[in-house]
Every structure is written in structure tokens, then in C-alpha cells.
Amino acid sequence: MNEFELIHRLTRSLPTNPSVVVGAGDDCAVLDAGVPDRLLLFKTDAVVEGVHFTAAAPPEKVGHKALGRCLSDIAAMAGTPTAALVTIGLPRSFKPEVVEGIYSGINALARQHQVAIVGGETTVSPERMFISVALLGWVPRGKGVLRSGAEAGDAIFVTGELGGSLAGKHLDFEPRLVEGRWLAQHFALHAMLDVSDGLAGDLRHILTASRVGAELLAPSIPISREARLAAKASASAKPALLAALTDGEDFELLFTLASRDAVPLLDAWRGQFPDLPLTCIGKIKAEEGVTIRDKHSVRPLTIHGYDHFA
């Protein structure tokens, strides 16, 4: 059983109540707290030593990543984060300066985005350290973007570059909060998420939720310099395109909107975010499944993104 089969099995009969607008299955839960002009976003995520970071990673960057993963999910809903709780599990032989460094990284990113750290929990973890963050945010009513709205004919866009995150980006990324809100304020986005498990896997989350398919344009996929250099440095490394499709932890925004808005979006984006690439990488199709087109052929895309239990 893979990670996503397990998630489906666990979430198909979860309890709910009238406050739940969107439950399990999107980047954040969406709750109606009775505030007239906004909805509440609720997200939790965890990083585990040996899975998401190594013992040699700078503690400040581990803290940055722990909070940043949740912030990236708020960005994918076009929301604004407000307050977080932090749970940290530590071996009995923990070093206080390491824990202080982790909190320094959390606090620095929280201050950058006006997020209050309002408490949490400390506990013992016998084998390895972990940090879990629960984050609240809000989104104006009518402006939140889900995974489930993609339509046939939509253009597919991604911010930044993909692949090679293990070279450092996975610990030092910038959640695209400003960009997500700007997109939702100025364009009618149909679906959006953040690329955490790899383009090949995360795109399928949109397609499954929207009950559509997609065709990717291989030459258009923005491959990072790190992925290209790694592919050139070793014959055993992933080809650069494969890295861009499957590495994950890029924390870029992947979204769709009507194709008629593609050119106006690109023009406006260049003026608003001149230092951040935005690329059209394909289109949404009515037929389910994913294909990838290059100069030679169109073929089914059979690879997937990262799976924790693979």
C-alpha cells in the first residue's frame, strides 16, 4: 500500500460537522468560523530526522523548513497565515543549542510573515528528532483556490524551477505566499497546489480532484541548475527532466487557469515578480491520464512523485 492509498483509506469516513467547508484532501482544511468576510485555513505538517533533514543540517534551516512547509500550503490556497503551534520530539540526549537553533529558524520565518507562535508541545522521541507544526490562516470568501477546479482547455503554470532540491533548496525555500495571494486577486485561478512531492505526483492530485487529464510539454518544464549539474556530474544521477518531475520539495506553485488568460498573466507577472520565473508547462485535457510531449512524440507519463512508503 502506498502513501496515497493509505491516506484515502484513513480519510474516507472521517467525522465532520457544519463548520467544515473543505476537509481532508486539499492543501489545507477550510472552516467557516462565522466571520463574514473570510474563511479559516487549518494545516499541519511534520519534518522527521532522516527523512526530511539530516543530523548534519543547520538547525536554523531545519526550523525554517518545519514552518515553511505549512506556509507553502497556505500559499497554495491563496491565504494569509496567522498563528502556529509547534510540537518537537527529542531524544533524551538532545543538545539545547540545537533546539534553540531550530526555534531561531522558526521564529525568523514567522516574523517575516507576521505569524504568531502561540505554544506547542515537547516530548521524547527515542530514535530521532521530529518537529510538527499546526498552522492557522485565513482567506477572503470567494478567493480561496482548491485542487478540484481544473477544466479542460486550461493552461498549466508553475512558478520557479524544479528538481535538485536536495542540493539545498529543500531547507532554504521561500513560501510563495505573496505570489499566491496576488494570483488569486488578479486572475480567476481554477486549481492550485504547491509542489512538495514532485510535479509528476502533485499534478495528479489536481487531475484526480478535478476529474480531468493533462498533457505536459517536456521542453517547457523549468529545470533547475542544480538538477542539470547533477545529471552532468554523474552517469548514475537522474536525468535532469526526471529530477524535475519527481524530486519534490520544490515548494513552487502549480496552478491552472483559462488559456485565454495565459498571455495577460505572463505580461502582468513579469512586471510584478521580475526575478521569479513563471512557465506554462502544458494544458488540461478532458480525457483522464497524463501524457508528455517532446519534439519526437507524445507518450503516457508513467512515473510518479515522492511516496513516503515506497
Any overview of this molecule?
There is one protein chain. The chain is of the alpha+beta class. 30% of the residues lie in helices and 27% in strands. The protein contains 8 helices and 13 strands. The strands form 2 sheets. It has a 7-stranded mixed β-sheet, with helices on both faces. Strands 1-2-3-6-4-5 form a 6-stranded mixed β-sheet. β4, α3 and β5 form a beta-alpha-beta unit. α2 runs parallel beside α3, α2 runs parallel beside α4 and α6 packs across α7. The mean pLDDT is 95.
- Topology pattern, helix = H, strand = E: HEEEHEHEEEHEHEHHEHEEE
Mean pLDDT: 95
Uncertain runs are: none
Going across the biggest sheet, name each strand in turn: 8-10-7-11-9-12-13
| Biggest sheet character | 7 strands, mixed
Count all strands and give the number.
13
* β-strand amount: 25-35%
Based on the model shown, name its key terms.
310 residues, alpha+beta, 6-stranded mixed β-sheet, 8 helices, 30% helix
What is the element layout, followed by pairings?
Blueprint: H1 3-11, E1 20-22, E2 29-31, E3 38-48, H2 59-76, E4 80-90, H3 96-112, E5 116-124, E6 130-140, E7 155-159, H4 177-186, E8 189-194, H5 199-210, E9 213-217, H6 225-233, H7 240-246, E10 253-257, H8 262-272, E11 278-285, E12 289-293, E13 298-300
Parallel strand pairs: 4-5, 9-12
Antiparallel strand pairs: 1-2, 2-3, 3-6, 4-6, 7-10, 7-11, 8-10, 9-11, 12-13
Helix pairs in contact: 2-3, 2-4, 6-7
